[in-house]
Structure formats: structure tokens, C-alpha cells
Amino acid sequence: MRTFHIEKPDEQLRAEIQDKIDNLNKPKGSLGTLEELAMQICMVQQTLSPHLDHPCHLLLGGDHGIEREGVSVSPRDVTWQQMINFTRGGGGVNMFCRQHGFKLRIVDMGVDYDLTNVEGIVDRKIARGTKNFLYEAAMSEEEFNQAINAGAALVDDCADEGCNIVCVGEMGIANTSPSSIWMHLFGNIPLDDCIGVGAGLNSPGLQHKREVLHQAVERFQKENQQANPTDTVTILRYFGGFEMIAAIGAMLRAAERKMLVMVDGFIMSACALGACHLVPEVRDYMIFGHCGDESGHRRMLELMNARPLLHLGMRLGEGTGALCSYPIIVSAVNMVNEMNNFQNANITKYF
What we know:
By secondary structure, this protein is an alpha/beta fold. The chain has helices spanning about 15-20, 30-45, 75-85, 90-100, 140-160, 175-185, 205-225, 230-240, 240-255, 265-280, 295-305, 320-325, 325-340, 340-345; strands spanning about 55-60, 105-110, 120-125, 165-170, 260-265, 285-290. A six-stranded parallel beta sheet has the order 3-2-1-4-5-6, with helices on both faces. About 50% of the residues are buried.
């Protein structure tokens, strides 16, 4: 895997940033999370006057071999059908991108359908879906590296257009399954506590999903007992989807280029968790948009000491929850740049 050189933000500016925030004409700490968010953004950008430029949303699509085991209520055809729907502006992600001024890039990382002639879809297809991780690794090392590099290159395209804040979303039927397994293996959390209903499984369907994922993890651990079953790349490659590995590459490259990274729901949080295990410094650049209703999401966020900005009961994916949080990020930036301070406003500082 390529090496990402991600620097922790320089701490020298922190005291000066805090002083500016504390001297805005408000009670100290009275804007709560906005103040914490403003600090993070100022630290990432190393400035007292932060700015958000040309926000970009990457919508990454891919299919999963494990879908063949009936672990999702939706068939894989929904992946390509939705990808085409996105090009026509009809998805939830389209609406929120329009509302908040994000440039949307729809990217085929591994959809099991020929989308090459569909206008509006960027072709980065590695294969027509991953292999079935119930029986073998989802992807080869070469495919893993290809996906990581593709995600990084997509961020470079955004950055070259002046973007300094990137949001990542996904479209891939059955991708809650690898997310649950990553959460289990990286977080040392019982697997059943990590598995939810996905797009809407009923109770028998949820039980079947648990049985399949338990079998997959047991096979993986048996196959890798001579190697290192806790190796991060091995775990990511064995279970992940092409769109998920590309998301990790995008997150790491964005942090390497000192861009803010907006993290969406359960699946993208699993990708963020994987990215943090690869390069822990990436965490400083992440803003967690919301906590969804998928089982275990809050617990996964706790593994990264993440406090989501919203909890709206959403579980659509596509990056929609993160996009909904963008106005809060804008408010944090505006607070630092536009609020007056006590001295200029001729208000007595009372603390």
C-alpha cells in the first residue's frame, strides 16, 4: 500500500485560536460544539480566519460478493439502478448537494453492471463487484492498492479545483456486512453487537445475516492463523468493498493535503475507523456529520472518540447525513470570522 504522510496540526497556534474564540462577544463556551468545531477547523487550516472553499462530494459505488448470501433485503440490481438515478438528479444525495452547494462526483468503483456509457458517472471500475468473503478474500492485494489509489486521485481532482473540504458517501448493497465485521475486528466488540438490519431486514433476515457473518469471520481467522489476522490491510482487503477502500484512500489523501473530511453514517464511519487504524493522524481532519440508526453506529463512533453533529434517525447512506451537517460547519466558520469581540463592540468583558 502507498504511504500517506499525514501531519498532526501544529499546536503552536492553539492558544491564540482559543483566545480569539473566548473573546468573541458571548459568554465563554456559550456556543458549545460550534466553538469546538471552529477550533478544529482553525487548527487544520492553521489560521485564525478559516474558510470553506468549493466543497466536493464523492459518491462511490460498488457491489459485494457477500450479497449473494442474502444478507440484504435489497438485491444488487439496486446499486446500478441508483447510480443511474443519481446522474438524473433524483437521489437524496443530489438534493442535499444542490441545497448546500457541493459539487457531486458519481464514481463507479466496482458496480456489477456496465455503466461506461452513462453520462455523469466517472469510470474507475476495478471489477464487477468483489468476491464473496464467506469463501475467500473480497479482493486481491493488487485490487486493494488500485482502490486506495483511485480514492486518493479523486481527492486530488477536487483539491486541484480549489476544494478544501470533501465529503464521502457510498452506494453498495450489502456494505453494512463488511462494516460490521470491521467494527468487530478493529474494536474488539462482540460481532452480534455490530450487526444491524441494514436496509430493512426482518428478524429472520437479521438472524441469517448474523449466521453468515459469524461463518465468514471464523473462516477468515482459520485461514489467517499462520499469518497475522490482526493486520489492518489484511482485514480491510478480506472483507471490504471497492467503494469502501476507495473511501479510505480518499480520506487519507484529503488529510495528507490538509483538507477537512466529512464522515457520514455507519459505512463511512467504518471506513474512517479503518483509515484511523492505518494512519492515526487522519482523525484530526475528520468531522463526523451524524449518528445513524444502524445498530452499533454510536458505539463505533465512540471507538474514535467522535461526537457527531446530528442524530436525525437517518440510515440512507450516500453521504446524506454528513451533507445535512454542513450548515453547522459553516456556522462555526462564520462565528470565528464574523462575530465581534468585546473590545470592538464596547462591551464589558465580565469573565
